Amino acid sequence: MMKRAVMFPFLFAAFFSSMSLFAQHDWRSGIQWEEPKMVTPGAEYGQPPSDAIILFDGKNMDAWSHDNWEVKDGVATVKGGDVRTKQKFGSVQLHLEFATPEKVEGSSQGRGNSGLFLMDHYEVQILDSYDNQTYFDGQCAGIYKQRPPYVNACRKPGEWQSYDVFFTKPELKIVNGKVVDVIRPAYVSVVQNGVLVVNNYAIEGDTTYHIPPAYTAHGEKESIRLQDHGNPIKFRNIWVREIPDSNAKPPRGKEFYADDRTVDNLRKEVEKLKAALEKAQKESPEKAVDEKAVDEETAETVETP
Q1: pTM of the entire structure?
Q2: CATH classification (class only), 55-242
């Protein structure tokens, strides 16, 4: 009777130890992912990583088609029309820094106005919105005429500000130069001065001033445009990274599995446990009883006939 009582605590512990080991299996999805390539981040916030495409580094506007924009002291100042990148882009991560004029002139949309156009169609508004009333979906960092920013994160006029924009291009079905179906809208997130102000917004179409938003036909990649709205906005440190168009997973290469090494280790641990139990039972069953101080009444509850 007592031997059976002694064995029960050991077997009970062995059972739960085995269950714990089973819970530590190394589960794998079976998806054949490509190995992520190494990218060296910028040394400080805002500096381009190693895979960035530099659009303006303070030296020249060679990456842009432009006429009269002035480049001086590492800064490009709006003058004489919009500028577009010579290279065309689809889905991107984009960083730029801008400053509205320190001398405040005008009000509402007439004060410190410019715009960042993704794929030449979708505008993230640039505006002096520091203590400047205007319609909310025309405010700085908003998606023009579609989505105001969550908060007004603008700095004072003349102070440098930053945008970090994450843009996924739309997927459009185009027939005879017209959009007949929006398979997937464009999506955009905007971080202004370190503050998330637009998060994964589904763009409704072109951001125009005078008509409702609607998608119009364009290429798989288009230029990035900076707007001349008649105000001398300053820009510096502009770069982009091309990013995937979706988060679609590659096909599963094989069924999910537990790492064979983990299973082998489990078997070994169970065998060790069984051996230890057998050894303890053979060497000193009476001592085992004393050490565990098994109460006879408790033992009776697990005794088998």
Answers
A1: 0.76
A2: mainly beta
